[in-house]
Design a protein that fits this description.
There is one protein chain. The chain is mainly alpha-helical. It folds into 3 domains: 45-195 and 488-517, Serine Threonine Protein Phosphatase 5, Tetratricopeptide repeat; 205-277 and 407-466, Serine Threonine Protein Phosphatase 5, Tetratricopeptide repeat, CATH 1.25.40; 279-403, no CATH class. Helices cover 36% and strands 8% of the residues. It is found in: Cell outer membrane.
Length: 518
């Protein structure tokens, strides 16, 4: 498959960002925002900070909408997703297989584009901050700068930082990972007083709020021993607990009706969603012949989960039809007896075995045989078009209406915050079994756990938060990212916990040093 073929035009601008916007000495067009505001060591403020802020929100949303860059690095590198080559489809010169097997190089396209996008966003936020905006815009710009720098720190460790009055002849200084941690923390703490609360059910959960800032603070404190080195500190774990308590005080909580959380209606779960078209979350997994309203090209037949990840959920390991006794979060597949027009014939969660149309007839593959999605993937290449369990978390049926391309991709939600608090308590020596079971009791057919260890908690985070951008972050924190899983051999190389600095960045900024192992 040609990865460009199926990208909608809204994603196109991502791939024309050549050079290292905001962090390199590469020659960039004069129309680039970084060059146009920095001339002869001076800085021309942006004309309309509020408008620039809105543009930045849209830019970040586009960065997270694509199936490449942020999503691929966060999920395809883990035990949750695999993009097997089926015939010639999804071969793409091995770019997807490299992510799964952890054999990427500093020249990997997705890694380079993620680096470019995040650095550009940090610089654009700095431009807004230094343009004397009003207090509300200033707070949101600081939040967005912290948000993008967080992912740079998490993915790459060290972070280049260019001041807005530095021209392209200046090599940006480089923050160590610990310095980047302090920078992110400082921006978030400075932003908090100027942000709206972000109570559930309000329109501003798509922008920066106190709830969103506290969520991101909880993330950095929970991972502080990864970013700063050393052992887990109780003081930082207490900061996680305090940040989550502040979110709960605003009215957020665990929502029942698991898959309804991912609709565009208001709920008590959603803390921060991105202005991201969720089409790629729907179509990248679905077979070509599965019902695809609003998408005349059909499904893209790419992304699958691993059998072992699917087996981590309760229920019949070989079936996922309605009434099989599976836990709610694993979802269900409609069959001939319960097909309905409203649901388009599509299930929720993990799609396995025979697939059906909305009228109850069996779907067929492209050769005319029954479309039976197989559980096991035996190889990275040479797979049949129906091999692999598919995942559909964002459904085209959005609360009873077809809304396949809605811009509502959830990145922060309360159940994640709840589990972060539980983990912080566990790392302080407390028994968190009842707290984890509180979440499970909100998910139907999900029995209580008898005890919660680190491995059990990691598995629970996977069951609750799959394909929500957090699996790599979790695996690194639990020291499992370099462990073996299906079709990936054990590496045990801790250097792989960081991605490489792209080659072009090293060539353009001599202050950068390649991460160990690359």
């Amino acid at each position: 498959m040609n990865i460009q073929k199926y990208m909608k035009p809204v994603f196109g601008s991502i791939f024309v960002l050549v050079g290292l916007v905001g962090c390199t000495n590469l020659e960039i067009e004069e129309t680039d925002s970084i060059i146009s505001t920095a001339t002869d060591g001076g800085f021309t403020p942006v004309a309309n900070p509020a408008s620039s802020l809105s543009d930045l929100y849209n830019k970040v949303g586009g960065d997270f909408a694509t199936q490449e860059t942020m999503y691929a690095m966060s999920e395809v590198t883990t035990d949750e997703l695999l993009i097997p080559t089926r015939g010639t489809d999804w071969g793409d010169n091995g770019i997807w297989r490299q992510l799964h097997t952890h054999t990427w190089t500093p020249a990997h396209l997705f890694i380079k584009n993620a680096w470019n996008n995040l650095n550009q966003n940090v610089f654009r936020a700095s431009e807004i901050i230094e343009s004397n905006p009003d207090a509300a815009v200033l707070a949101e710009a600081k939040y967005l700068r912290a948000f993008n720098m967080f992912f740079l720190m998490d993915f790459f460790g060290s972070v280049p930082f260019r001041e807005v009055d530095e021209g392209p002849e200046v090599n940006p200084r480089v923050l160590t990972r610990s310095e980047a941690f302090s920078f992110v923390e400082s921006d978030l703490l400075a932003a908090l007083p100027g942000l709206p609360d972000g109570s559930p059910g309000t329109a501003n959960t798509g922008t920066a709020t106190k709830a969103a800032a506290n969520f991101l603070l909880a993330k950095i404190y929970l991972n502080s021993h990864i970013y700063n080195g050393g052992a887990v500190e109780d003081a930082n774990m207490q900061k996680v607990i305090d940040a989550v308590d502040d979110i709960a005080a605003l009215g957020f909580g665990i929502e029942t009706g698991y898959f309804q959380i991912f609709e565009s209606s208001d709920d008590n779960e959603t803390i921060f969603f991105l202005n991201s078209d969720i089409g790629a979350r729907i179509w990248n997994s679905m077979h070509y012949n599965m019902n695809s309203p609003d998408n005349t090209g059909g499904g893209w037949n790419g992304f699958s989960t691993l059998a072992e990840f699917y087996d981590s959920f309760e229920g019949d390991p070989n079936s996922n039809y309605v009434g099989d006794g599976q836990e709610e979060r694993r979802g269900w597949v409609p069959d001939a007896s319960n097909a309905d027009n409203v649901n388009l014939g599509l299930g929720y969660g993990f799609l396995i075995n025979q697939q059906y149309n909305e009228d109850g007839t069996k779907l067929k593959n492209r050769q005319g045989g029954d479309l039976i999605l197989k559980k096991e993937l035996t190889s990275l290449v040479g797979n049949g078009e129906a091999d692999g369990i598919r995942i559909l978390k964002y459904h085209p049926n959005d609360g009873g209406e077809i809304n396949s391309f809605r811009k509502h991709q959830i990145l922060f939600r309360y159940s994640d915050a709840h589990l972060m608090k539980a983990e912080a308590m566990m790392r302080m020596g407390e028994d968190i079994t009842s707290m984890v079971n509180e979440l499970r009791q909100a998910r139907t057919n999900t029995p209580d756990l008898s005890n919660v260890t680190e491995d059990v908690l990691l598995a629970e985070r996977g069951r609750e938060l799959y394909i929500e951008f957090w699996r790599r972050n979790d695996l690194v924190r639990f020291d499992k990212f370099t462990a073996p899983w299906g079709l990936k051999e054990v590496s045990g190389d801790p250097n792989l916990n960081l991605f490489p600095i792209p080659e072009t960045a090293l060539l353009s900024n001599p202050n950068l040093v390649q991460n160990p192992g690359y």
